[in-house]
Protein 1
Amino acid sequence: MKKIIITGNVGRDPEMRADQTGGQFASFSVGVSVGTKQNPKTDWVDVTCNGKLSDLARNYIKKGSKILVEGFPSVNAYLNRENKPVGTLRIYANNIEFLGKREDSETDHTNNNEPVYNLPEVNDSPMTSSGSLTSDDIPF
């Protein structure tokens, strides 16, 4: 079994196409940071998805979106116009998760439309008013 998981920013808006049977699929690229701070490098990975994932890609994935892609890899090697060997990595996605947008990390986070979670009130029942447990509070 081959499986790959990547995270990165979408490099171009999804392009919709149809196969010979009329099924729709989407393809787009994802930039994955692999270098260090001193020597930054980005690897570009082509992603293809079909079915419900292609609808999701068409409607929600945009250039700059930060996503996680899970699927199976396919490597293609060929000679380019200058007769130099070139290799590409393509992922046939079976799961895509949204991690936010690249713009979110570069802007002020005070109004980023993230949900606010209200924590439940703390129940002080097993603790005494001083905040410490007594031997009667321990069940063993």
Protein 2
Amino acid sequence: MLAHAFRDNPLNRAVIGEPAARRLRCNRLGMQLQLGQYLAHGEVVGAWRGPELVGVRMTVPPHHWPLPFSPFSARLRHALRVGFRVSGRWSQVGEVLEAHHPIGGHAYLAILGVRPHAQGQGVGRALLSAWLEEVDAAEAWAWLETDREACLPFYRAGGFELRESLEILGTPVHLMERPARDEAARAVG
């Protein structure tokens, strides 16, 4: 599901290249690796329409960033399957993002993806809103990165503010923060 949601994202194009089928294959393998980490150390939530999984959110609760590394054998297997060039470029992306990732008790939205045919129908908004309720209940602040310019208004509507924009492999990546909501603000809003 997530492989389709991110297939055409700018960073995927920069890291993996063409054709789209190759991006889809590499995304499937990458998402499998990440899914294991988030199931073990974070939270994974799906949105379903009948029997179809149409959206997924992967998050890290407050005070749990950074996640431990995936086992070396899993990372090596991934690199062999996607190729060392793609694996190395994703490592490069990760190093840049890690250098700009804040330290502290924040909640982290690592992945929010919706199948292309279900985008614009409230699936992403429902996944984000439910997570932000958890973040607010924990009295935490939140962090995310996005490489999709079109997603900036979506995240701003959730209370996120742009902190910085970087260029990674020629692709703009936007770092966003949502301040913690205090009790008075929650009672009013």
